[in-house]
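Quick one: co-fold with pyridoxal-5'-phosphate.
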Amino acid sequence: MDEKVTLDPADWSEFRQTGRRALDDAISRISGLRDRAVWQPVPEAKGIFAADVPPRKGMALGEIYDGLSENVFGHAMGNQHPRFWGWYMGAGSMSGALAEFLAAVDGSNLGGGSTAAIGMERQVVRWLSGMTGFPQDAGGILTSSGSMANFTALAVARNRKAGVDVRREGIAAIDRPLRFYTSDQAHSCIQKALEALGHGTNALRLVPSGDDLAMDLSALERLVREDRAAGFTPAVVIGKAGATNTGAIDDLAGLADFAAREDMWFHVDGCIGAVLKLSPKYAELVAGLEHADSVALDLHKWLQMPFCAGAVLVRDRDAHRATFAAHPDYLEEKARGLAAGEFLADYGMDLSRPFSALKVWMTFQEHGTDKLGRLIDQTIALAQHGAARIAEIGELELTAPVPINIICFRYAASEMSEDGIKALNTEIMLRLQEQGLAIPSDTLIRGRHCLRIAICNHRTEVGDIDWIVDEVLRMGREILAERTAA
Ligand SMILES: Cc1ncc(COP(=O)(O)O)c(C=O)c1O
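Sure, here it is.
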């Protein structure tokens, strides 16, 4: 007989040693973040990635770890650093990281089965339901991402509003084509979801937003009226609790009323702002969320859980399940034994599902919702402080209101063209990034280019915000002087 193959360590004590070293190094890395570059370009010739085929023979774990320490861990995205504010990223947490390790050791697949892990996910979904004002028996699951949470909810909404059995007959059987409505500030994942669901981009009506960049409800009413008259079925209104660009929040209560009047499904993309429900000061901003038919959340953003941790909640649990449940011969539900209980895979696309609930559960257990709510308020206070400082400086310009924790601004000395402003602010952004000083990202607000800092970071302090305002001003002047001299 051939030598027995197993993937367990040949030497458990060596594994223990490498594991301890990895934990110690991780603690040093994260506790010393402030002294490190936020981000560094990855050198081209990183030998570790040169091989085009995997090794035929393995190597010792300690040696693998040394290679990783040298070549990989120093070249992370940097979103854990207190001066990372690009896009909209959480900064992670150590207990979240520990949870990821423990979840992998537990090893459960959360597609279905009678396990403690599944019980934990159900509990976490109930917690999220309570938090957002959904009923305790709402449908819901954790998803890989906010994009998948939105996709999942829109699939349920579509099936409910189609008027035909879409699972059996497909969307071609829908009599009057469905129309979906969201504001021109919506995240691109909404469009991607509708494309993947077979409706196409034309089915998504982008409703203009007002000066506050929230959806203009009268424009929505007009579009819905026009579409009905033209033979379409207005099916779903998608509100935003926090637009990606600026954090703008739609009038969710108004949208809920409108959707009810028009017999439409009301979905909320709450990936950024649904968790405002925890905020002692700002929960009112998302009043009306509790009336939605479905909501998408992203716990890896403001609540800092390690990637990925999305979640979807659907008020009508039966509608949710009816969209995804599938039980072939090899997945029959049983009254007893390991396969007892409802499969979580019946609420989404994935059959194999990770034990993400553990990092969610551990984060809530460790910090509690009060502290998480205060963290949300802290980041908003930082953004308001930054916005107030920017407003006082003549060469800096706010390009959008700052309702929550995102500041859109730019260096714009007088008499610069829009192209010139874009080139200069892009250069500021790239210098900040390439020098490892800070990570802002950039965007366009109504066609005007600007820097964007999303303070979704539990490590950022007021000194960091003062510093970035001063640094953008200093760099703007410096680059302008360079250009004038050239
Ligand atoms: C409002 C909003 N919705 C959806 C998403 C997509 O989330 P994810 O990146 O987790 O797929 C984002 C991402 O930033 C977002 O800001």
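If it helps, The pocket of pyridoxal-5'-phosphate is lined by residues 88, 145-147, 187, 189, 242, 244, 269, 271-272, 298, 310 (CB under 6 Å).
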